[in-house]
Amino acid sequence: MKTYYRLYLGAKSAYAEECMKGNFIGVDFGLHQDLTGKFLNSWREFNKVFIPIYQDVFPEKKKVTAGLYCATIWVVSKWLKNGDIVLSPDGSGNYRIAEITGDYYYVENQILPHRRPVKWLSNSIEKSQLSE
Question: H helices of the chain, where?
Answer without folding.
Answer: 16-22, 43-57, 63-74
